[in-house]
Fold these 2 entries.
Entry 1:
Amino acid sequence: MAGGRAGPGQDERRVVGSDGGETANSYHVDSYSEEPAMRGYDVDGVTGPQEGKAKGSGGISELNRLVEALHGFDEGGLDHMDSYLGSDEEGLCGSGGMRGLASFNALGLDDMRDDVGLLDGGKRGKRGGYARSEAESYGYASEMNPKLKGKKVPLLEERCEEEFCAAPFNQDAAEAGTAEAAEPPTVWPQQPFRRGWRFNWPGVVLMALYCLAFIFYLYIRIRYTLDLGAYVWWGAFVLGVEILGATSTVLYGVNIILTPVHEPLVDDPANPGLTKVSNSYHVRVLVPCYKEDLEIVAKTIQAAYNARLPDNCSRTIYLCDDGKDKRKRKWCEQMGPEIIYVSGRTRASGEMNGKSANLNNSLGQIYPAGVRIPPTELACIFDADQVANPDFFLKTLPLFDAGDDVGMVLSPQCFHNIDAHADIFNHGNVQFWEYAQVGYDAIGFISCTGTNFLTRSCAFAAAGWSPTYTLTEDYALGMELKKRHWQCRYVNEYLAVGEAPEQVRNCFQQRSRWAKGHFQMILSNQHCPLFQRELPWWERVMYCTGVWSYLVGAVTTPVFIAVPLVTIWAGIFPIVVSWWAAVGLTTYFVAQYAVLNYVRQFKHVTPLWFANVANNILWWTFVKACWRAAGSMMADRGITFKTTMKGAGRLMNANIGDLWMPTICLLGLFASLGFGLFKVVTGPTVVTTLSISLVWLIYTAIPPYLLLHYHFVGRGQTLRWACRICFWISSLCGIAAIILLWLVYPKQYDYGQVLSYSHTFYDAERLGQVPANGSVPWRAPSLLYERGPARLGFGANLTGGWEAGGMAGTLKLTMPTAFTVAMLAWGLLEFPEGYARAGQMARAHDNLRWGADYLMKTISRPVAGGSRYQDFYIAYQVGNYTLERATWQRPEDMHTRRPVYYVATKNGTSDLVGQMVGALVSTALVFQETDAPYYDRLMTQALSLYGAGMRKRGKYSDVFLYDCAPQDPAAILVDPVTLACRPPDQQFQGSMVYWYNSTSYRDDLAWAASWMYKATGDQAYLADAYSYWTQHVNMEGDFDLRYLVDWDNIIYPTTVLLAQLTDDKAFHTGAQSYFQKWLCSSGNTISYTPLGRAYNRFNPALGQTMNAAMLAVIYGGAIAPQNATQLEVAPRYNDGSKSQKYICFARKQSRYMLGDKTGASYVVGFGPHFPQRPADRGASCPAQPENCTTVNGLYNPAPNPRVLTGALVMDPRTWDYFEDNRASNDTWVSVELNAGFTSVMAGMNQVTGTYDQCLQGYGILARDVNICG
């Protein structure tokens, strides 16, 4: 009988030993299966798992939502479930993910909500009869089984019997008297399976390299790194643990050497859409359960029922219910003869594995002892929550045709409720399913996993059915089959979907059970794989790999946690750090990382990382499992079978016993990290070993942190981000450890020489009548005929100044020039000793005067208006950008009269005025003691300009004009040529206001007022500074979140200056907030390259970094204890620790610019390796009289014929790479980019201390509590 039901005249629900009541059962929870069941989904809202409702409590309606959700996948919807089921980017259930699962169109659950009463026996008091209506008659039974449509379905009569058995598979044959004798075939196997495989050459190469690297590493470690004196024992012990870990790597690496070759599936030509099989298989699908809700089990059974079969195959489904649930029984009996309800077994005394006993009870009834089982009989096992894909059998059954000795076909598991980006328990186990199992398939090794597999029933019977002597019956079943020479096939395709445990308690219990089961086996004299003579030695070893991985995790993880702790607390490092150690460790680390992270698909990188995280989370579980398994074996005690929770039961709270060890580890690691930082900062120590240990601590702290985050914070978006961040942190920690091994003692730099070079760059960028004996011999007078329109009150000429550089080329721009002059002047005021030690004071004064003189030329004579304040015209640009960007020539060869672009202060130019006032006043303070007339001139001009800026407030870029200047008589005398005026075609064309537009102006006014207060001490200016600073923060503060410092963003220099002037807490807080972002890496705004260069994502130029460094060294000096109280009546705010950190930040970034990390300087002319092709017209053009063009200048691949000494290139990259290409903006140079850099060099030449102190504190600086909070 195909369905296995009882024959005529027999009651299929016969009693087999009822005791009159429900048999006692000592299971602790409601399932045997390894994973929990699926939850419902809200299709309408696409919100994922239903919150606030335990699984199973949603009843039938929740299941209907799941069915609708599964339907949605055929239409490309519900992407939220694809995180683990296979998105295009990182899904884990095959390339198509959940969309790869065929439609569940015939699950037949739509009417379940209406038939709950029917399942409970109909109306109260009703004990039998027929359905009163067509709806009752058909119900979901007819929807489930089309064979029942149009037929009366009798309501079930209440019965007291609770034992229900499965009919023998040969029931019909036995009744006809044709039962076969239990005689085995004379020759077996008649058609043996021939396994196909090929070498996976990338895996072969990686494993070969790893083995060579490991041998080399052992040689290095033994010969060069164990000379530890009295502590050689510690080094030898750690080396032994490293060797232990290496064995696990080798055992895993074996699996990536070979790849199986499967025969292609063949379509059945007579039945399109179905695969062809040679034999007519009858599949007995067994679904063991205990107390899962009906809708959970029904979903699994219906999926198995609706899964398509090859045309010549059949199936019977058995619900093996140890919970004796009446509703499940009635539901099964309404489904038709293909669904058999089996229940009523009595649990044996001392029974260890309830799932195996439940299965064996059913299998023993289906296949009576002594009856030969045909090879076409197959058993398929699904856990209660495993929903099969409709093509499950089409993909698995044909593999049995490959040979009579194919005893098992496996498929991997995936789970709908696991986020691939936050799978800290490694439920997805991609390393096992996609790599280990593939390798096992290639070498013919069986590693059964408990669900979603099929076996030949005769093979299953030969193995003694499902093993009951261990907690891990699947692992044991594979070994039992292999002992009897059965072969296994593996389908590397996700063909069923289940649910993984989510609660920490459930996860630990599940992994503890797995580990204890493996330890049970290895510690058993009877079942230890090493003692199984039927297995060849290599298979005995392979069957020990599972327990070996648990043992390795239980030993190596705590030891590697202890190593950095011992280094910090006891000062003992397990190796002698040397060049040989760096070579050996680098070689071995890279080789091991390549093997353990070898992937065939890029999306597997993160899941493989989670495998490592899970091992580090679960090490204490492995230790306890080993201890308890050993104790039970020695004391002859049984181990309680604690099953994974299903349904509402999975919501149990985590026990403190699960989290106390990870919590202690995390707290201990953090405490050690703090102590290590303290030792680095406060005293001389071995920098290399301690710094490596601090990086090691961070890496080791990630797994326990993620576990506690998972339990206490949440498992949603915050965990995803935490995992992503921790993934990158762990990767960077590995890189950082290698870098630190290669780190040499820092060299010393001559900051005075660099300061001199930087001022040489300003000499090279001058325009106008340059001195004949200047420091740059290849520069000559240029553009001597520039002047503003006399009708507007401009002076005799607009010669002088600097070319702006960068994309502006030879244009002269007032806004960047004012910023440059102010930064240079501020540096001179703050670091006079640095300039004096370098012998650059005179050159600095000369360059500063050159810039300030030009700024005063850009201001017209006052415009009469009769108002309280005077108005002016200000020339903000000289030169046509549209024309000049199309040419590439020396400034000395430019004879075209350039237009002047100007604005009127009466139209609102507060931003431009503020910058210019700050530049003029700061320059005046530099010359206050040495050149009083010049000081007075600067202050007079600044005072008038300040009033004009206050009269009409606004941004200069909102309204602008241009004018074609008349010919300058002086130019005719010097260079008598015919000049042509080429005004722009349109008002906007030619002006760079598009790129040099201003986003705010109140910060510029606060900047100007602050300098006016510093110069005069007038409280009115201080009141203005307070007012505009506050207005800017409240009205324009959004721009400050970019943390930029340049001609357009002056609020942070203003804040630092006001903190110096007032010692107000608000300004100190604002300044330190800015430094916190730069020192602590804000992520979205401030980041660090692998070699430690800080950069701003909004403007990653090196000049931007040096502007931040300039503020850091100025503010760090201001809050240093010796400066904060010097000559002060009342104590000022001071913080020595922060002062050192800020100055160290400036040191670190300065050294980076000079080539400390990259080996090449970013300053032209400094060091043996520096940029050869800075984008500067004068430096890149060939020597006169040869003409300069874009061909022989801009696009000439050769280095510049002249060295632009002292220029800091732009290099706007976010990684440690420099493209020395003149046509790339990497090589742009400009006066504004050098401004902060110049002052930092002066500061480094003045401040006390050494870089050694910074090196001891840096590396973990971003985690400094004092700075980063």
Entry 2:
Amino acid sequence: MWLVQEKRSGPLRPSGGTAAGPTTQAAIARASGKLTLAVLATPGPPQLTILGHLKRNDKMRLGSACTSLRQASLPWFPEMTVAVKLGWIHMASLAAWLERHQACLHLIVDRDDAQYDYQELEAEWNDSLTALPSFLVTSLAVCVPGLPAAVSTLTALTRLELEYPDSSAGGQGNELPFSISAHHLRPLMRLRQLSFINTKVRINAARLLSLPALAGLQALKLIHCRKLEGMPLALGFSMPQQLAALTALTRLKLSGIIELAGGWHRLLPLTQLQYLGLKYCGLTALPQQLSALTALTRLALFNNKLASGWQHLLPLTQLQNLDLGRCDLEAVPQQLSMLTAVTRLNLSDNKQLAAGWQHLLPLTQLCDLDLYDWRLTAAVPAQLSALTALTRLGMGGTLLTDGWQQPLIQLLDLNLFNCGLKAVPQQLSVLTAVTRLDLSCNCWQLASGCQHLLALTQLQDLRLYACDLRALPHQLSALTALTRLNLSYNEELAGGWQHLRSLARLQDLDLDCCCFAALPHQISALTALTCLDLSRNGQLAGSWQHLLALTRLQILRITCKSLPGGQVPPKLATLPHLRIECQPVRSQISDSTAMGSRSLEETRSGPLRPSGSTAAGPTNQAAAARAAGDLMLTVLAAPGPPQLTILGHVKQIEKMWLGSACTSLRQASLPWFPEVTVEVTADWIHVASLAAWLERHQARLHLQLRKDIWRDVPEWTHSTIAALPACLVSSVTASHEIPAAVSNFTALTRLDFTGWYADAERMPASLLRPLSRLRQLSVSRVKHTETIIEEILALPSLRQLQALQLSECSLQTIPPGLSALTHLTALALKENNLGCSATTVLTALQCLQSLDLERCSLRDVPQQVSALTALTRLNVNGNGALQGGWQHVLPLTQLQDLDLGWLYLPMLPGEVFQLTALTRLDHTQARGDRFDSRPHLLLLTQLRDLSLEFCSLEEVPEQVSALTALTYLSLSGNLLAGGWQHLLPLTQLRHLYLQDVLPRGRTAPRQLAALPMLRVHCGHIHYIESDSEAF
């Protein structure tokens, strides 16, 4: 089955209403609760319909919505993980619960149990394990100084992990009565994963690894395995001989076995090995036998003083993850250049590493590079900028002195933790793709460098942990894409909270240990918050009301001393999804018949297994199924409290699965999703399944067909396209070639074609003839189009066309056939050499509202433009030779948007000032001509958006003060020295762009603080050429 990637957007909108009073509403709520429980608590078709489409976490959230549902939800989870402390859980009750629900158990023995007396602990654990149903215990992790004998009874175990906590635990010193005996593991024939961690107990490696039970072992972990100090190593000084027999191994970790220096030939039979961990093994050279492990995809060599043997890595052509951290490297080994499959490389903590960076250049797939704790004395190596696949760079703990000269513009994740930064690096301003940035533990002054963050418009996760912040920088308000912000351990943070208000997408805010005594009231504006950490702050008395607006808040972390009287304020009970964590959370699961009030922490997973049975015959079963279906539809199909109770606990994708459960529910669920977008990559999609899905939901499809321009092989085939339901495809975007099957899409309303400078024969007019519903047509980057365009424009099926774009089509004249498209409201002819060509055809387009003539080599405004009196938008940007014809714009009394950017004009034409309906004017200058300071600008009183970039202004023009409707003003590229007082009357101004205006290190003038809604954008301009929107 191929992949359908779907995105649905829009909040749930309850419809309908009631005029009932409080008493009636309470009765309705009680009835709704009973109805919800009737559907969700009883095994059967309605329950399966809902739960069968939910993931584990959503089922857990739904199951914990109320006390009654918590009890009823126990059968939903066939597997559970239990963290156990002796004395905290009644093992007989747990055993009865497992038997009753036939649930598989993943048992974790809490490390605090190591504080018990060892002999008592062994006896108690033997009794506890024996009490459990052995066939239901599938995994066991024990943090005690030995392996209880009762483990041998757990014959269903597939995973076993033993960790020794500490030699001094329990006051026993080095007297360890436990040992790991091979006979304990002999009955465990299903064992696939075995781990021994920090075990100072006695291990007979030869006997242990030769057990028949371990023949199918797939993962073996031996970390710091040894006897008591001063005695020989548990594994000796070489690989154990029996290791060669474990040929099913895919993962082997032998970390911390110091001076492991022999027996490497015993790895040769492990041909399936994919991961080999040799951390802390005292290696000085790579063993020759590594070259035989050609299936390796991950190799960890951390903390070995490696000096030679690098040639043995050359056969490892599948290696993707290589860890060479703390290996005393002075240069990047030359042999790394041959490992072209590597995607992740760790070179951290090699303090003398200073050369060999050129050997990274062939690693074209390297996307993750760690250089933590690298004692950098100069700049970041320039070779890193050539790693075009690099999206994550970790440089935490590296002392940055000269920064980096070459921008790593493709980075998505950058870690500059504890780099000794005194200011935000200027180089960050070019990393516009970054979504995660860690600047924690840098004591820097916010007055310097924060403007470099303004360009990071895609930043979602920002960490400013322990940065000695006194106030939040105002630039923070510009990072509107943030969903997670960590400000913890800024113990003197006392101001700037107003800059959080614009972060409407913020979901996770960490204010741990910020030492404030009251909640900032600005937090109430962060209505998207789902997690808020207020731990280790003072007593937050009298400020809890600021949380009441956070209706989506699910987790509030706080210390008990911050609560008044140690009690949760009653007003927080109004937050419907809130869980308060005052200490490590321990879920309470109670069972009325067996579990009592004992506590255990659990995570449950696995597919839904219906429980319960009935002796009713086929007729009664059919009637029950119909009744159940009616009941389910009553709850889920009708807007109201029962529907919201269920849908409010599930994500959009879960709602989509739930809505597609049956025909009736498919129809009823349509109001759940105001908008639906289906993204399709043809080679990844099972077209028949997609077609059935579209038919079932009667959903409209927006189809994107891409083609690799470097290969003459499309991502789609004719049969792929022809299999789609023609009546449901509403838009198509194609590149290089339009498939013939598009002519079958008779419901098509939009077609976008980019030819990548191919000949127009790739777009035959015959394909468009049947498309009588087409309303938007875009053709870009096609050569030799004159004949084809005329044929297309002559098609009767395009007579109702409303939007047309012919960009970069090598047109020398405006196509005469345009005169027949009298319904056009938008026309874009961008980047065609129209020059002084005849434009008489424009006069027929009386409905035209938007005309784009950007970069068309115009010398004058076409006379025929004067006839287009319905125009509201005109773009003549980039016509450097345009000088005259401005009188032709005077009849355009409805013109609202005029783009005159990048024109070589000595002064702004006076006719422009007579267009009093203008709300947007772009007068960016191409060569820095001085802005025309005549008072005509005062006439444009409706102007809301004004761009005066690169106009050689020395101060803010006085005339701007009269434009009191302005909300957007760009003065970038002008060296302004004064006139700031002329901005003060602009009380509606929200965005002021001053890029390349202020000297480095200077902030916006203080006078601008009087403008209540203003956001100032400083920094430097980085132009990215993009196509203007035509429609």
